Amino acid sequence: MNILAPLNWKRLLSRRGRRTGLTRIGNRRSARFLARAGALSILALAVGFGLHDGGHLKYPGSPWENASGRIASLFGFAADGIKIAGLKYHDAESVLTPLGVRPGGSLIGFDAANARHLLENMDWVLSAKVMRLFPNQLEIVVVEREPFALWQRGGSHYVIDKTGSAMSSLDPARMAGLPLVTGEGAQSAISDLVNQLEAHPRLKSKMLAAARVGQRRWTLHLDNGVSIALPEKDAERAMARVEELDRRYELLSKGIKGIDLRIAGRVTVMVSEAPATGSESKLKVSQRQ
Hints:
Blueprint: H1 9-53, H2 67-74, E1 81-85, H3 92-99, H4 112-120, E2 125-133, E3 137-144, E4 149-153, E5 156-160, E6 180-182, H5 186-197, H6 201-206, E7 207-213, E8 217-222, E9 227-229, H7 235-249, E10 256-260, E11 268-271
Parallel strand pairs: 1-3, 4-6, 6-7, 9-10
Antiparallel strand pairs: 2-3, 4-5, 7-8, 8-9, 10-11
């Protein structure tokens, strides 16, 4: 007796075909669902980033104001420790704002090398060092340019460093103690003038401003109203001559209006319009206009 019943191949193939067809239909539905879900997710992210970057979610008291930071904190990538060293004339906000970083904000995607380049491209930064200590520590060291003088050009004033580079972030009104220089080329030549004045402290202590004339020479303006026209060449020798006259005769305290040293070997003193009295009347000067 044959115990193996004959297989009904037609029925078996029919059942497998129906199952395969159902599986294909299910796969297609799953694919369509995933595609739609992915598209909606991308759209939602795009809208969210647009609202965030556009400032629409940053109103006072907004629950979304630091959403990226809170999400980053869940994974330990929030800026929980930020150390900034080297600041003298600027505050921490001047460093963090250009970098797009703030305490508690997200450090996901933060590039320390790019941050250093951004800082060093700022006109008040001489050099910078940025280190990220994973996952949530940030250390920044900034060397600021040192204010050296105030440069007046037209009706505007600029704080400049020793090289003549302007620092737009510094308010000239806060730097009233710096010497004032005017004229084209004054910003790049003031360093040499100050170096020469170092050897003549009597003049340096009295100098209030210096005007660059024709990009060739200087006229010094002292705090008592006296002007000193220096020659194009041998300016330092002319300074020494004035300082010697002031030491011997107190020339700069005699109520004069100016001293002209543009002609080699000659010192021309211009008296003020008010008549001299007392000891000042004894001063003999050569007045030349």
